[in-house]
Amino acid sequence: MKTYKIMKIFLSIYILFIISFNSSYSQKNKKDSEEKSKIKSYNEVVDSTYKTDEGLFKVHSKMNKYLYEIHPNLLNKEMLMVTRISKTANGIGYGGQKINSQVLRWEKKYDKILLRIVSYENIANDSLPISISVKNSNFEPILYSFDIETYNLKDSAVVIDVSSFFTEDIKAIGFPERRRKQLKITSLDKKRSFIESIKSYPINIEARNVLTYKSGAPPSLSNSQTVSLEINNSMLLLPEDKMKPRLRDRRVGYFSQTQTDYGLDEQKAKATTYIKRWKLIPKDIEAYNRGELVEPIKPIVYYIDPATPEKWRKYLKQGVEDWQVAFEEAGFKNAIFCKYPPSKEEDPDWSPEDARYSVIRYFASDIQNAYGPHTADPRTGEILESDIGWYHNVMNLLRNWYLVQTAAVNESSRSVKFEDEVMGQLVRFVSAHEVGHTIGLPHNMGSSYAYPVDSLRSKNFTSNHGVAPSIMDYARFNYVAQPEDNVSNFYPMVGTYDKWSVKWGYSYFHDETTKSEQKTLNEWVKSHAGDYEYWFGYYNGIDPRSQTESIGDDNMKASYYGLENLKRIVPNIIKWSYEEGKDYDDLKELYLNVVSQFRRYIGHVTTNVGGILEDIKSYDQDGPVYVHVNKEQQKRAISFLNSYVFNSLDWMVNYEVLEKIENIGSVERIRQIQMYALNRLFDYSRLARMIENEEKNKTSAYTINEMIKDLNKSIWKNLNSNSVISLYERNLQKGYINLLINTLKESKTQSTYSKRNGANIKFDESDIRPRILSELIFLQKKIKTIAKQSKDVNTKDHLNYLNLLISQSTENMLSD
């Protein structure tokens, strides 16, 4: 009886559940039916007036209306949206510049399609309990919500209207915030914003839209008070088969991306950083493991833009294929190559905008630049595609560099228009450099330090090794070689470091995990410790070994040889820039480039003063990471400046040249050059490093007081009763006094820390102010004395003025 009652109760509950379920299900069906009844039929929405483009999504277009038809298999799939400026006004970046990238996911919610932003900054394996917390703390924001316009009953694909998405002011796929502030953007002008085109390809969709903004400070055509630009949004389906990522090692240069992995067995939130690289897997793993060169399953292929002039195509191609030797070090043959674009007959569907193809894009532009971006999977670092941007006018930049840096010893560069073969080799050099970026390699500014300056004067050495072990350095061309050296090769080339870094980044470890392969990779790095040919030098502005545009292992020696060559170029620059019937525009451009080159040499030298050497190391390597530049090297730097910057610069004042390019300017130009050197020397972070070095290393340190004393030997060498101080010297002395006064004032007014080049400085409590004040008081005493004795009117007036400047500054300081 008891059992019967229990069964009766259970049966009653079950019947109630069934009734309730059927009621709920009926209500849901009714709701779904009502929702679908509001939606038009497919043929009503996508009528015969639409053009359809097949691809990742079907894209239906009519006039300025665009529809996406999304197959249900693609909902909840992750896609990478890369936003670039494709066309822009002068002064707003450059065409092809990436302004944002984000992972997106299309998600169906009732009668809506939501476009969500997916973040991989914080992750945890789904199998771990902490993954729940990570997901809850990283709720995916909704970028946009689309009404479902209709369904395709054949495959249940949803159709949405994306027209507003690309013509509204959505910052995530539009103008970057920094530029908005710069140009004082107030709002988007919808009447002058429209979709240019949307094209669908097998794994990506390319959308181009023109956006016009109302601007309070437009860069050009200011009367219009508007800014228009064309944006390209590339949406790329991320691969299902993820690449095994490789952990970054800061001792080897690679572009990288960082995640915080909460699933690691650590007692803190640990950042995990992966390098960016292409996915190269050997076709024959057994042969690869035997040490044989093996082709990859999917090689890296670049295409030449159809818009590229015929005569430059082969050089761009050579620049790509110069990297084959580097990939051979990683065990791959034919891993990277370049193809000419197929004709319409060969491949009617080929397009340079298709993300399946990496293209060297050729832009008819007066911008003097080339760049090598890449698009990478944020989950693994896999590089998915790259479009190198090549501006036609980069050849003008190459001409200027090559002439100014080598014309003193190189006849082929003594013209405003080079022979095609000469320019072609320069194109090849830049092409190889930009390709290096697209395979994951950043600039290695320290590479050129590996070669002794004297070796750069050797014909045999430079013919075999170029000017640096890495083409990724900003080494440019050999400005060190002298006329008597007979050097014939002035270019960098894919060198020892490049081959080594590709081996480290691309070697395939079939049976290893991301973590376990680190042991081998670390041993590889350690095996080359101390060998500068394998060294990656970060550019931080304080390590004299790692600088832009420098070559050789001695900045002072290299700059001396470079300066000697500039002195040879200036008297010949009229002859070398001559073109019958032309004006002197090229002469002016080249002369100013000579001055800029001299300025670079000054920058290279001043970095030694207060410099710090940085050698990234791991715990299993001995020695410090940071070491101050030795005293003797710093004194040599000041000696160079005293001899060649704060002394006579007559070589710059060539009136035969100057009278053809300007009516005034030489005096101010020299003042600016000299003040550039002084401003760098008295940079606050440099002074702070020198103070700390003095405290740490005592008498073996080069101090601020010693630097000032050494500078005085040149800047104030004529501060005696019998001397006439020249115009250039007077300008330098006024500049020096004003620099000290301004340093004192800024130190006085700064009440908080200022951070420059990694140095935190609290001016009011540092030793900078006392040192500067002491120098001003010392100089004032001498200036007062000599001013009374001087018989030259200009000299006397000058010294009295300096005395007044110092008096006013110190009085104001005391009164405050």
Keywords:
single chain; 816 residues; alpha+beta; 4 domains; twelve-stranded antiparallel β-sheet; five-stranded mixed β-sheet; 23 helices
Structure description:
The chain is an alpha+beta fold and 816 residues long. The chain has 4 domains: 1-38; 42-237, no CATH class; 285-576, no CATH class; 677-815, Methane Monooxygenase Hydroxylase, Chain G, domain 1 (Up-down Bundle), CATH 1.20.58. The protein has 23 helices and 26 strands. Strands 1, 2, 3, 4, 5, 6, 8, 9, 10, 11, 12 and 13 form a 12-stranded antiparallel sheet that branches. Residues 748-753 have low confidence and may be disordered.
Topology:
Elements (H helix, E strand, L loop, with lengths): L1 H37 L3 H4 L5 E3 L4 E5 L2 E6 L7 E10 L10 E12 L2 E7 L3 E2 L6 H8 L4 E11 L4 E5 L15 H6 L2 E4 L5 E7 L3 E12 L10 E12 L18 E6 L8 E6 L9 H5 L10 E5 L5 H12 L2 H6 L6 E4 L18 E6 L6 E2 L3 E2 L6 E3 L1 E5 L2 H13 L13 H19 L20 H7 L30 H11 L10 H11 L27 H15 L3 H4 L8 H22 L5 E3 L11 E3 L2 H14 L10 H7 L4 H16 L2 H14 L6 H12 L11 H23 L3 E4 L2 E4 L5 H22 L3 H23 L1
Helix pairs in contact: 6-9, 8-15, 13-15, 15-17, 15-18, 16-20, 18-21, 21-22, 21-23, 22-23
Give a summary of the structure in a few sentences.
The chain is α+β, with helices and mostly antiparallel strands.
Number of strands: 26
- Radius of gyration equals 33 Å
Separation of termini? Answer: 103 Å
Reported for the largest beta sheet, the result is: 12 strands, antiparallel
The overall average pLDDT, rounded, is 90
Q: Helix amount, in percent?
A: 25-40%
Shape: globular
**Uncertain segments:** 748-753
The proportion of strand residues reads: 15-25%
SS class: alpha+beta
Task: Give the helix tally.
Answer: 23
